[in-house]
Amino acid sequence: MEDKIKNSFIYSFLCKDKYLKDLIILNLKSLIDNKNERKITIDYNRLRDELIFYKYYGVKYNNSSYNINFILPIILSNTNLNKSENEIIKNIFYYCKVNKEDVKKYEYILVGIAYNYLVHKLIKNSNIEFEYLLENIKNHIIEFSFEERMEKKDIIRFERLRISFIQKIDRISDENLEEVNEESIIDGFLRVIYQVYIKDYEEQSEELKSIKNSILGILDFKIDNIDIENIDFIKSLSNYLLKLRKYEINKKLYNESTHPKELINLNVGDVVYNPILNNIKVIDKKIEGDILYIKVQSKSGDYIFRFKRA
Q: I need a surface site. Which of 15, 165, 243, 291 has the fewest CB within 10 A?
């Protein structure tokens, strides 16, 4: 089982979408294990600072309709389906708010619930029959209810999407791929299910490839010739994820205060500790045009920060 979980995480990086892969890492780094309550949750103070730093060294938000596999670390690290589901909902709401994607949040919630259910069931038994699995996903979606009260307009919006999702699950069950061809996360997720269980074909979306490969990992498929940048680091993260799952990290809540601009005063050769980056060494610092570039080296790799001159 542990190898399947590790492979599911590692295979999620078999895509070309750097933004998505970085979000998977940021979410994993922000997880905390709560042994008393037997759950793994996101430390949102930590994630907030991770995202602030990411704005200075990362790539721009790609606005893809299929960006959801950032929830994978939450799914794989939790042993309890319902506790995992609750954290996924919080995480999706958080990212939709950060990225100003409120219009997409209920689509993402529905797929997040279904994806979480799928992976948890496959971890326990990867030999579940396809029809039985789909029927149980559908029933889980039907029975789902939010713990918090919602405004009437949001209830209507969510219920319309729920009905549409359930109908499309039936279409996939009938092997009717033509009914799930919209550019939406719901249709994209169901197309991945179709590829995995009914008839495989080349997936064009890099974000959906990530989901597909994660599911294949849980199903114990072995992918040869893995071409993943910084693969040793990704493998170390998969081991870290397993330790979280066993509540062996005992990670404390993040109570630090830091900002990327603190790096500006450092010189080449300086070695410092940063709450987000850990121990880093400044290996390059230069100005090109109106941009100051600072390259730092850390255990997880090199980061190039960009600061625009005022």
A: 291
